[in-house]
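Following up on my earlier thread - several people asked me to post the actual chain instead of describing it. Fair enough. Here it is, all 131 residues.
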Amino acid sequence: MSSSKRVGRTKGLATRRKAGSTARPRVVRERVYEGTTHVTPADGNVFADLGFPPAEAENLLLRSELMTALMGIIERRRLTQTQAAKLFAVTQPRISDLNRDKIDRFTLDALVNMLAHAGVKVRLVIGRSAA
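Reply from S.P.:
Thanks for posting it. Predicted structure:
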């Protein structure tokens, strides 16, 4: 009895954008398995792609974007955790949670407040979903 392995390799990443569109490009990954090409389009929200319910996926995406903004401030200003905690008006362990991507420990309110303490203006754009 012979066994066969599926050997896959990523062929590359491509982006697609409709002419005149201001929306984010859709990322497409191609995989080749034994001569077969499979294309999986992404919708721009990794949490939705991972199977989270739509409302939760949107919330997680917003929180991750705010956390990324906070980390960007820390990196650009070369702040220690203690300095960042003072700037954002939180405790040092909260900055440690931020560094370790503990998204479940932060609410949207807390993240917006932290950015506000750093003098960052946060705007929310509301629109209809693509579906």
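The chain has two domains: 8-41, 49-117. That should answer part of your original question.
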